[in-house]
Design brief:
The complex is a heterodimer of chains A (166) and B (293). Helices cover 50% and strands 0% of the residues of chain A. With 166 residues, chain A is mainly α. Chain A is elongated and about 60 Å long. The N and C termini of chain A lie far apart (43 Å). Chain B has 293 residues and is mainly beta. Chain B has one domain: monomeric porin ompg (Porin, Beta Barrel), CATH 2.40.160. Chain B has 3 helices and 14 strands. Chain B is globular and about 55 Å long. The chains are: A mainly alpha (166), B mainly beta (293). At the A-B interface, helix 1, helix 4 and helix 8 of A face helix 1, strand 2, strand 3, strand 4 and helix 3 of B.
């Protein structure tokens, strides 16, 4: 029993050290600065990747499936409405919404590992395209009028289902 | 030592009540590793069992818990607690391991290398067979637990994980070199894996039994001797079909049936596991410590 208690104490200690090290890795940067660095990655997508068309852009189910995937894998960092969270930038920003679908797909595939976004190539290609369909369906957020209100997707996104979020 | 196993079991049940889970797209591998690391800030708590047959002695049930934390998008750290019950003998706690995996390249490539470093403080009674190395053969596990526990191993283990995903298929190759910190020689081993989700497109409906939630594949793993006798002589090897079921509620179930490929191998290693990913664990701890005020 004593061995178990020691082992559990060691677990807690090691995890704490790992987390402290992880959080101390870089000095905290302003959120907008970190977001800008992530958005800048979109421009690094090779021309060949940008030129890729979304093979599911006419798939009637792609947005709904993409929303499910977003809820399962993305909203924890990017926020329930993709408005941005503590760890991930807003996906309603015009830099994302105006990006080519191929560039967003490229970011999903490669991640932004040094900035904290993991590689998502473990999702099969069709699922990544479904995510692209959903993200592009959200549209650019209108400016937030007052503190505390959520950004709203633009009216151009007829398929966007923000009210469908849990 | 029954209390030790009860403690492990209770710890395994503890994470049932933890909030903040999300669907993880976990691979079905139990021995092999692919190049995907834990998402930053997430904690995955896993429980695994291995039932092994033993021709010259009693069969055994080995079990372990893993606590896997995504320190960054390129670094995952993990802690293991091992134990085993040998039928007709006893239940013993067999040690702990501390593992780290580092993603080398910042972008996705055809083959993606990950470096793996592990320190293990385990007894000779450890039977989880999470990796097979050197001349690990069935007869090594035949002694009674009391005798096996007298051997204490401080071991460093290094792996090069090479993995890539193409058209939904993941292929991975792990090369292993382990060094007992006493005077034992280096030992080598390998693991290969291939897997694919049963469906590549996600369903428009949220569902537990959709084919995309099931990932099936196979593993092949074994020892490669040591520098004095490198090769397949006096080594054990296994092939194991594997399947994982990723539930939207955040749970993952894994099942694997490993079959020994030669007379030095256990006839059957039946493994199963359950895991749950706790999203935002790092932030929760940081909040508790007052870091996000």
């Amino acid at each position: 029993m004593r061995e178990c208690v020691r082992a559990l104490a060691a677990t807690a200690a090691l995890l704490s050290v790992s987390m402290v090290l992880a959080h101390q890795e870089k000095p905290p940067a302003p959120k907008y600065h970190k977001d800008a660095l992530v958005y800048a990655e979109l421009s690094k997508a090779p021309q060949k990747a940008r030129a890729k068309r979304n093979p599911l852009e006419r798939d009637a189910d792609a947005v709904a499936a993409g929303r499910n995937l977003f809820e399962q894998h993305c909203q924890e960092c990017h926020g329930d409405l993709a408005e941005g969270g503590r760890k991930g930038p807003s996906l309603l920003d015009e830099q994302v919404q105006n990006a080519e679908p191929g560039a967003i797909f490229w970011i999903l595939t490669n991640g932004v590992v040094r900035r904290g976004m993991p590689v998502w190539s473990k999702l099969p290609e069709p699922q990544r395209w479904q995510l692209v369909s959903y993200i592009k369906s959200l549209g650019v957020a209108e400016p937030v009028p007052s503190r505390g209100s959520s950004p709203k997707p633009s009216s151009g996104s007829s398929t966007a289902p923000p009210s469908g979020h849990r | 030592m029954v209390r030790a196993s009860v403690t492990l079991f209770l710890a395994a049940l503890l994470f049932v009540s933890l909030p903040g889970s999300s669907l993880a797209q976990e691979s079905p591998y139990i021995v092999a590793y692919d190049h995907y690391l834990e998402e930053p800030g997430n904690l995955e708590i896993e429980y695994f069992s291995t039932f092994g047959t033993q021709r010259t002695s009693n069969n055994f049930h080995a079990f372990w818990m893993e606590f896997e934390y995504g320190a960054t998008a390129w670094w995952t750290t993990e802690f293991y607690l091992d134990g085993q019950s040998t039928f007709g003998d006893s239940t013993v706690f067999t040690g702990l391991r501390f593992e780290n995996r580092f993603r080398v390249l910042k972008r996705e490539h055809f083959i993606n290398p990950v470096l793996y470093v592990e320190y293990g403080n385990i007894s000779g009674a450890d039977k989880i067979l999470k990796e097979v190395e050197g001349h690990d053969v069935e007869k090594n596990y035949a002694d009674r637990n009391a005798a096996l526990r007298e051997e204490h191993n401080h071991e460093l283990e290094f792996k090069l994980l090479l993995s890539g995903t193409h058209k939904g298929w993941n292929f991975t190759e792990n090369t292993l070199a382990a060094k007992n910190l006493s005077k034992h020689p280096w030992e080598f081993g390998y693991a290969l894996g291939a897997s694919r989700p049963l469906a590549l497109k996600a369903s428009a409906k949220r569902c537990s039994f959709c084919r995309q939630n099931l990932i099936a594949g196979a593993e092949l793993y074994g020892g490669l001797g040591d520098p004095h006798s490198f090769g397949l002589d006096d080594t054990s090897h296994y092939v194991a079909p594997v399947v994982a079921w990723n539930l939207p509620s955040g749970w993952t179930f894994r099942l694997s049936a490993g079959f020994g490929l030669n007379d030095h191998s256990h006839g059957l290693l039946l493994r199963w596991g359950v895991s749950r990913e706790i999203t935002g664990f790092g932030s929760m701890v940081k909040n508790l410590l007052g870091g996000n005020r």
